[in-house]
Write a structure and sequence with these properties.
single chain; 216 residues; alpha+beta; globular
């Protein structure tokens, strides 16, 4: 059983990073590959990823997280009927673990249905199955979730359109500032053709934020 890996990021794609651990490259699927970076922000530094190891008949897969809280929430999400690893990763891409946990505790179905791959019935199952298991999770996000905050509440930046509005809100939920989100929006605007999903726009924005951080 692999609990965590520590190494340098050798490569990034939209769904995973390749973590170089003493010369061995591990493909680790994660919620926001372009947000996986050393704490000091220096390129080439070591990162620690907490791992969920899945064994299937056709593959052995690694899912990675930048915190124990994210790892724990991922495993709880897998207990909900209809949520597999890919959907759980998509959920974590939509907000901080504390925000998602708070929404579940507050029974905020409106918030949960804004997360990738989550419909009303699945959101209701999440509340039913996980609400009591998340009692130890406490944060200021309870007030936000209880007030009905949702990923679609944030005003769209100059890009316009619902996909950017939701992508920007996801960036804010991940801890980026309004100014950082707007800079990412301006950077990716020329790349958008129209019709992109919220998930695709969010990943482009995260990539832009990562590239901007490396230029500082």
């Amino acid at each position: 059983m692999i609990d965590f890996l520590r190494g340098t990021v050798a490569h990034r794609e939209t769904e995973y990073v390749v973590l170089d651990v003493r010369g061995v490259g591990y493909r680790v699927f994660c919620a926001n590959p372009f947000a996986v970076a050393p704490k000091d922000g220096k390129d080439g530094g070591e990162v620690t990823m907490y791992i969920h190891y899945q064994v299937r008949e056709d593959a052995h897969l690694l899912f990675g997280f930048t915190s124990r809280e994210e790892q724990s929430l991922f495993r709880l999400l897998l207990e909900v009927s209809g949520i597999g690893p890919k959907v759980a990763i998509g959920i974590l891409a939509g907000g901080r673990p504390e925000t998602i946990a708070s929404a579940i505790r507050q029974e905020n179905v409106a918030f949960l249905t804004k997360l990738p791959g989550i419909g009303k019935k699945t959101a209701q199952r999440m509340v039913l199955d996980l609400k009591d298991k998340l009692g130890a999770w406490t944060s200021a996000d309870d007030d936000m979730a209880g007030a009905g905050f949702s990923l679609g509440d944030t005003t769209a930046a100059p890009l316009g359109g619902g996909a950017w509005a939701e992508a920007k809100a996801a960036l804010l939920a991940l801890g980026y500032t309004e100014a950082e989100a707007d800079r990412a929006g301006a950077a990716i605007k020329p790349k958008l053709q129209g019709g992109e999903t919220t998930d695709a726009v969010t990943k482009l924005a995260l990539q832009a934020l990562f590239q901007q951080s490396m230029m500082r």
